[in-house]
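Give me structure tokens for this 243-residue protein.
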Amino acid sequence: MKSNGVALISGGSRGLGLAMVTSLLEHGYRVATFSRRPGEAIERLKEKHGERFSFFEGDMSDQASLGSVVKRVEKDCGPIDVLINNAGIATDGVLATMQPGQIEQVIAVNLTGTLLLTRLVVRQMVVRSRGSIINISSIIGLRGYAGLAAYSATKAGLDGMTRGLARELGPRNIRVNSIAPGYLETEMTHGLGDTQRNQIVRRTPLGRLGTPDDVVGAVHFLLSPAAGFITGQVLTIDGGITC
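Here you go.
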């Protein structure tokens, strides 16, 4: 299979990240991903795709760890053509009663870590004058949600990063966009009670929660030549709940 290039996806061992890893492998990319620990699906992907798939252990809140991951990806896989900033954590809690350490951890992983990882990857993209970056933000960053103020702040920050970097990197032929998913059927929503889930479904014009596949299609579009003149945008995929 002809390679479409090298893609690095943070937090690709489960949920939406795993869906993106799997789909990009199936569409001819050489894919690398990292997280703090491998999920059950990682070994299956290694067996199926061999050298076209690489997994590394890495910590988004550790600058040295991020540097090590990027060096290993560039050494083992080659220059990175696509960066998908997907890794993130959410901590529920009223801001007034949250511990400072909890707030700092959400910011360190979701925002600071993403900025540092992107800084490392874009260096080679700038040298080569090519690349595409997709930041996975959230409708929570667009509209907010009670109990998720810190998470909301980090996701809104990612969208600001997208707009700033699009202007900064556009002259070097590097596109930067965000995807803001709504409520998806992933591990992050499995903790919702039936009442919360039903409320979300009722408020969603399309009448259901989203799936990772609903987002994956948008990823392929933004990476395709059809999106060659799209940069600095936030594409919302939420079944209409924010309309």
